[in-house]
Structures are given as C-alpha cells and as structure tokens.
Amino acid sequence: GQNIDQPTEMTATEGAIVQINCTYQTSGFNGLFWYQQHAGEAPTFLSYNVLDGLEEKGRFSSFLSRSKGYSYLLLKELQMKDSASYLCAVRVANQAGTALIFGKGTTLSVSS
Amino acid sequence: DVKVTQSSRYLVKRTGEKVFLECVQDMDHENMFWYRQDPGLGLRLIYFSYDVKMKEKGDIPEGYSVSREKKERFSLILESASTNQTSMYLCASSLWIRPGQGGLVHGYTFGSGTRLTVV
Lengths: 112, 119
Hints:
The complex is a heterodimer.
Chain A: E1 3-5, E2 9-13, E3 18-25, E4 29-37, E5 44-49, E6 53-57, E7 60-65, E8 70-75, E9 84-93, E10 98-102, E11 106-111
Parallel strand pairs in A: 2-11
Antiparallel strand pairs in A: 1-3, 3-8, 4-5, 4-9, 6-7, 7-8, 9-10, 9-11
Chain B: E1 4-6, E2 10-13, E3 19-25, E4 31-38, E5 42-49, E6 56-57, E7 65-70, E8 73-78, E9 87-94, E10 109-110, E11 114-118
C-alpha cells in the first residue's frame, strides 16, 4: 500500500524558520510535490523534487532523499500569510500512468 | 491563465439522490482526477482518467462512478448519495506522464472545489 506521513500541526512565530517533514513508503515513485492550501481554497503548487537534494525557491525550499523515503519543506522568514495547510504528495506510477497520492497535511499556524 | 472549473461551489442533496459533479479544464490535459478532502483524512483519490472513456480506480472508489466522454470534461457520479459522502470534492488535471518519465510537466492544477452536503 501507499503511506505518506507528516505532522498534523505545527506552530511558529513571524520571522522564524520552520521545517515540515514528510516520510513516504510508496510504489513506483515518480516525484514528490509540496502544496499549500489556505482554508476553503484549492491546493496551490509550491515545489517539486524528483532527484535527491535541495530545491530552493525564494523563502521556500524542499529537500528529498529517495533512499530514506524522506522530504522536508523549509519555510524561512515566516509571515502571517504562511498560516495554511501544507500537503506532501507523491506521484506514483502504474502501468497506465501516474497519480498523486497525498499525506494528510500539516496545519501551520504563524503568530506575531 | 490555465483553469480547472467545477460547476458548483456548494451543493446540498438528499440521501438517495443521484448526484453529478462536473469538472472542465481548458488546458488540453490528458489526465483528470477526482479527490475528496475530509478533516483528519486529507485528500484521497477517488477515480482518475488518462484519456477519453478511460478510467482507473483510486483509493476509495466505492459508491462513486465517473464519466469522461470528452477530453475536457470529467464527471463524478454518486449513484445514490449517502450522508457519509458529505465532503469537499476537488478535481485536478495534468499532462499525461508515462511511468518512469520524470519532469514537472506543469504539475497538477486544482479546481476550487465543491462542498457537498448530503442530508
């Protein structure tokens, strides 16, 4: 079966750095995505990793270790607007194609 | 700007009704997906489709069916709605990626969601 784990909730203060971890056990790994979802809205794409290492995009970075089945999303210089759910998703493949399987999400609360 | 449009933002239906949730994308994407999202359970894949008239079961297909008669439209059908199908339903689309093929290929684009309440 497919299993993606991430913490349920995290809290942090404005200006701080937070790291959201994700571990996965899936078949046919074909890339890992991070999405941000504000309450009542659709998920929006943040980052994508398919090779080991760090991908940096402004205040957000994402890391992947395929051998460990592990990823993290790093958010720097936190702002109040970063309060949201962060979804880790693995693209898995079968003979027909690919689909995204999601973790349950991490709700991040940023306080002043 | 690329778009995935879901026909209804909010929907209230009675138990036993047949319910159609519609999703249309304007990006000429081969792949389309239906997820439901529930507190504490996250996004769970119901069905997906790689091409017209093709469908694959996701993790929780029971109680649902789908229809893909045209490339741009993917419908989710609840044959006989039940209260445990009260949920947020999200549609998504992406370009088709072969197993083993890497690359972002535009990722996945989500619709705004349909909040369905079955009473």
